[in-house]
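Fold this: ROK family protein
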Amino acid sequence: MKKAIGIDIGGTKIAGAVVSADGSLTHLVHQPTDTSSAQAVFEQLLAVIESICEQAGCSANEFAGIGIGLPGKVDRDAGIAVFQNNLPWDNFPVVAKLKEHYPELNIVIDNDVAMSAYGEYVTAEVELGELLSYVTISTGIAAASIVDGQHMLGAGFSGELGMTRVYSALDQAYMRLEEAVAGPAIARHGQQLIGRDVQETKDVFDLYAQGNAEAEHIIESVTQTIAYAIDNMISLLDPHHIIFGGSVMEKNPWLVAMVAEALDDTLLPAQKDAISRLRISQNKGQHGLIGAGSRVL
């Protein structure tokens, strides 16, 4: 079975693993990200790759290639990390730099959400011609859609679901979805409506579980706003599979049922079969690694 190296680079950690054609992972490596300089991040990337090879007992050239998921804007064709707000890479030539060390390997980079979507595509039961949309709700919000193994890229800025405008009942204003319901927004709503008991997003969910009325109001309103965005996605794309990931959803998977309930009130009768297509990722936060490695297999 062919295998590849999958890498997921974030602002706090770099993760890597050996990825098999069936999406299974072995020889996982995690290291805190050294963001002191562009070169420091790159050297740490090399260290993670070499650590994976050491664990696997082989050289990098024995793999089919290396796939890397990055936050922010990525020029996948030129192999350049254009801009990442949590990494010191500004137009950093990731692929060219790696080719200096691994000239014979196929090396692919892409946005981390695109890689995660591909990881879901590889592991989900997707039939030929079916459209899969992956939605991540975490510190930010984004989406990516795949059909027949190919990303729907548009002119290059597609999938920015978090940038779409919605009405936030909690803010009583129109704003971008990310500003209204991403993790930091949930914490902000908690601080405004509940007060000092809320320091972070998790506190709002903890209070919700305890039956706090203000927390219940926040989560119900946030869920309704997410449902409006998914309603728009269904009306525009009508995906066969809608998979949620990201820390907000994966730590609180019951939110999918709340979104589904809200959609039942907003979708047209002919659209309501889409509700059954909503589900939470089953890849336990590893979809980025799976997708990155699978892109070179």
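Residues 213-237 form the longest helix (25 residues). The chain has a mean pLDDT of 96.
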